[in-house]
From TrEMBL:
Protein keywords: Carbohydrate metabolism, Glycosidase, Hydrolase, Manganese, Metal-binding, NAD
One example GO MF annotation: alpha-galactosidase activity
Protein name: Alpha-galactosidase
One Pfam family linked to the record: Glyco_hydro_4C
Family the entry assigns: Belongs to the glycosyl hydrolase 4 family.
Transferase recorded as keyword: no
Length: 467
């Protein structure tokens, strides 16, 4: 076990280091923490973006007197990874142009998607683009920094985390997702309401997580040692029809309008099955038949996030990053709700940390096959990453989750084995695709492959029935 030494320089390789979202969150968290001595090596296929973020990172460090973090931009993946203790992976599979076709083509066939990055036709095609890239990153980690701890932030989380383990079975990796944070916030609110004063924070809410990424569930919860499950179930029943949020969605704010929800899907699933559905409504809705929620998304008060808005938002983020690079005032180095720095400190021998992550199933979720990527709590410490046994989902919920877990594993197999013949049957089996019938689904699949074939390995891009 390695004792925590805050003077020892830790090398962090950031793959996708030109990121406009996650990279600056990490910068702010490292600056706020102020105890880690770190060298952050940013790598991105857009080297200029990585150089810009390196300069912004240096500004964050300079603005926080206690911060001991330096930032550089590396021109090659190998250079960034060499000697790394810790690797962050945050990339965009393809471009927003490809994502736009992932959404628009199924819409022409009557399939509505609220996100399109995990399951459904959009998530499926995105995985085809992303798996080969993440697999190559995993191979490079095995070659250049085999002992590094690796966190994947890229969706589709399950198949991409699985690709890392296929590339390098001894990799010390996990997939990190913040969706469960929303349920923990609600739980803290309920505990404060019960206490009669604001006392608890999201971090005080403890939950037992089980399921797969973005289709996560919680079957036990507590705050300050008090069991809160009955309180949460009653709250969900109370607000099942009306929905609930600590403050209303600002309909004039496009981001809130397209990315926030009123928990009506969460509460409806919770009341149906007697176990808390724990991801955001926009993600949960895509795992079940379209008639449940997507067809009635306005009634259930969640947005369908248009790619056109994502493109405009990205332009705004680029402008904001360029302004920071030109000397605009930095946001205060307030901590985000992400757990990466806490996880890193724990792995270096600091205070033990427990949070929900994605790992291969080694029995932590009973009822799901060994090896599929599941989401449960895990314990981070100087001993490494140890998944926490979470138990088994109720039979009715397991019936919904299991086919997705099996499909994700089979999709990973098909892509890595370059087995194009296996793709269409898997695509047809998704609950959003099944209702449109074989002939139309096959036609749609061909159109989607044609739209993204330039991003695919040749053996997979050959499937195309469009003349």
């Amino acid at each position: 076990m390695r004792t925590f030494d805050n003077a020892r320089p830790v090398r962090i390789a950031y793959v996708g280091g030109g990121s406009l979202n996650w990279a600056t969150k990490l910068m702010g968290d490292l600056a706020h923490d102020g105890t880690l001595t770190a060298e952050v090596a940013l790598y991105d296929i857009d080297h200029a973006a990585a150089e810009r973020n390196a300069r912004i990172g240096q500004r964050y460090s300079a603005a926080a007197p206690s911060a001991k973090v330096t930032y550089t931009a590396e021109k090659t993946l190998a250079a960034a990874l060499t000697g790394a203790d810790f690797v962050v992976i945050s990339i965009l599979p393809g471009t927003f142009a490809e994502m736009a076709s992932d959404i628009a083509i199924p819409e022409r066939y009557g399939i509505v998607q609220s996100v399109g990055d995990t399951v459904g036709p959009g998530g499926f095609i995105r995985a085809l683009r992303a798996i080969p890239a993440i697999y190559e990153i995993g191979l490079a980690i095995g070659e250049h920094c085999p002992k590094a701890y690796v966190v994947n932030l890229t969706n589709p989380m399950s198949v991409l985390t699985g690709a890392l383990f296929r590339a390098f079975p001894d990799i010390r990796a996990w997939g990190a997702c913040h969706e469960v944070i929303k349920t923990r916030r609600t739980l803290a609110f309920l505990a404060n309401q019960k206490r009669g004063e604001i006392h608890y924070r999201m971090a005080d809410a403890k939950v037992n997580v089980l399921g797969i990424n973005h289709f996560t569930w919680v079957n036990a919860m507590s705050v300050d040692g008090v069991d809160m499950m009955a309180d949460y179930l009653a709250f969900a029943e109370q607000h099942r029809d009306s929905g609930w949020r600590e403050r209303p969605i600002d309909m004039n704010d496009e981001h809130e309008r397209y990315f926030e929800d009123m928990s009506k899907v969460k509460f409806d699933l919770t009341c149906r099955f007697g176990i808390a559905a724990a991801a955001g409504d926009r993600h949960l809705a895509e795992f079940v038949p379209q008639s449940w929620y997507l067809d009635r998304h306005r009634d259930f008060a969640f947005g369908l996030t248009p790619v056109e808005y994502r493109i405009r938002e990205r332009s705004q983020k680029v402008a904001a990053a360029e302004a920071l690079d030109s000397g605009a005032p930095l946001p205060p180095p307030a901590p985000s709700e992400e757990a990466i720095v806490e996880q890193l400190r724990a792995l270096l021998g600091g205070e033990e940390h427990v949070s929900n992550v994605n790992l291969p199933n080694r029995g932590q979720v009973a009822g799901l096959p060994e090896g599929v990527i599941v989401e449960t709590n895990a314990r981070f410490s100087g001993l490494g990453i140890q998944p926490v046994f979470a138990g088994r989902l109720p039979p009715a919920v397991e019936t919904l989750v299991l086919p997705h877990a099996l499909r994700q594993t089979a999709l990973l197999d098909a892509v890595l084995n370059r087995n194009a013949d296996a793709l269409l049957p898997l695509f047809l089996s998704d609950p959003l695709v099944q209702p449109i019938g074989l002939a139309r689904a096959e036609q749609m699949f061909g159109e989607m492959i044609a739209a993204t074939r330039h991003c695919l390995p040749q053996e997979l891009a050959c499937y195309c029935i469009i003349p």
